[in-house]
Design goal:
Length: 397
């Protein structure tokens, strides 16, 4: 195995694969000179997990063998990076070897901190405690919703950045719809406990979602953060983030969105911002200090919502700017903070939020996307997976 590559990419997730494919399409000079380092055997299309938790898709459809998504012409080094040495253009992997590079792309995603909530790991997957944020447990969400006989259904959103900020509420809307269909809605109290100050932070979509919440008679507790789960007693402990008040509530089922953080090996490295993310320029995606380092995706400090949709716009910027930099030309590709969140509001309805750094809607459809639409539900369920596997990962969309 070569130990030096023109382009070295850390993480073969949505971001890493998209950048590798784009570079390989754009110049034959990269062929066999790009490597992706990632210990994973499989690649996941995580946006599907919302529908899996809601019983509308099978989890196996979200998983592909990593080998099948690594683009032709790129190497896959199946190791985990443990250390960055950007002054010497090297990374160290977990078997102790080093790999060097001309250009580094940092995209190891976000780390789920299951230990951030006392008792969660012990009870996840039983006692009615479920989470769509784990491939292993995502089908337990549907098992829980499907078998729910009424009572208190609680949905949480943590006090940390999360991947897909809309996902914690999407599963709540699907569950509420399922409770209606199964005839248990009338004896069920649905509550959202969110650390956020409101339901969404783009005004147009916030107003629309507030109407959804009213129509569905969902109780909301904003600025509340889950700190402990006592699964055997079916009790959850929350903290009010404004007053510091701690309160305990009972539940019959609870969907937990766990706290998340920057991967530790990145946070402890010279590439990290103060908060631990890879510190990049918000338009060029070039590292703030190291010219030959770029970063994107969930692991970056880009001040926008962490989504695959955002990566679809970030990947071409990284690829184009690396090529320009290599040629000594100005880096003209610029990312505007675009992100998108297809907010499923039921089994036949969806609000397609699209916005930029300024929280201004940047809608791509010729109609008002703040309106719930069945067509947009089918876009998410039937078309976006095709676009992902056959377009984005192949570097063509
Ligand atoms: C339930 C759920 C619903 C979602 N819904 C949507 C949606 O509707 N729309 C949307 O656009 N997005 C959605 N997302 C978010 C989307 O999946 C992520 O934003 C996207 O996958 C991030 O891509 P990434 O490449 O940054 O990270 P990932 O795709 O998570 O990939 C990171 C890769 O880095 C690897 N890695 C980690 N540590 C190391 C290491 N030490 N060394 C080397 N490699 C490492 C991992 O193995 C992984 O393969 C959802 C996510 C979830 C969980």
């Amino acid at each position: 195995m070569k130990s030096h590559f023109k382009i070295l990419i850390i993480g073969a997730g949505s971001a890493g694969i998209s950048v590798a494919s784009r570079l390989l399409r754009q110049s034959s000079s990269f062929k066999h000179d790009i490597a992706l380092i990632d210990p994973a055997m499989n690649h996941f299309y995580q946006p599907l997990w919302t529908l899996v938790g809601g019983g509308a898709a099978k989890k196996e459809a979200s998983k592909r063998d990593m080998k099948s998504v690594i683009p032709f012409g790129a190497h896959h080094i199946q190791q985990a990076v443990v250390e960055f040495d950007p002054d010497n253009n090297e990374v160290r992997v977990d078997d102790g070897q080093t790999v060097s590079y001309d250009y580094l792309v940092v995209a190891p995603g976000i780390e789920i901190n299951w230990d951030g909530i006392k008792g969660l790991k012990e009870t996840l997957g039983k006692n009615g405690v479920c989470s769509n944020y784990s491939y292993e447990h995502v089908d337990y969400t549907w098992e829980t919703i499907r078998n729910f006989k009424g009572g208190k259904a609680v949905f949480t959103h943590p006090n940390s950045p999360v991947k897909c900020g809309g996902a914690p509420q999407k599963i709540m809307y699907l569950a509420e719809d399922a409770f209606n269909l199964h005839g248990v809605r009338e004896n069920t109290e649905v509550t959202l406990c969110s650390a956020n100050p409101g339901i969404f932070d783009v005004e147009e979509y916030k107003r629309a979602l507030e109407k959804v919440i009213d129509r569905k008679r969902i109780k909301t507790n904003f600025r509340t953060n889950l700190t402990e789960v006592r699964g055997d007693k079916k009790e959850a402990v929350f903290e009010n983030l404004d007053t510091g008040e701690v309160f305990t509530t009972s539940f019959d089922m609870m969907h937990v969105t766990p706290p998340m953080k920057a991967p530790s090996f990145l946070a402890d490295s010279p590439l990290a911002s103060e908060e631990g993310w890879v510190d990049v320029h918000k338009h060029t995606l070039q590292h703030a200090k190291y010219d030959n380092v770029f970063g994107l995706g969930d692991a970056s400090n880009l001040p926008t919502s962490k989504t695959g949709a955002a990566i679809r716009k970030q990947a071409p910027v990284v690829a184009n700017n690396i090529i320009s930099h290599l040629k000594g030309a100005p880096m003209e590709a610029s990312y505007d903070g675009y992100s998108s969140c297809p907010i499923v509001t039921g089994y036949r309805s969806l609000i397609l939020a699209e916005f930029d750094y300024y929280k201004v809607p940047t809608e791509s459809m010729p109609f008002n996307q703040a309106k719930e639409r069945q067509s947009m539900y089918h876009l998410k369920k039937d078309f976006l997976p095709i676009i992902y596997w056959n377009g984005m990962l192949k570097g063509v969309m």
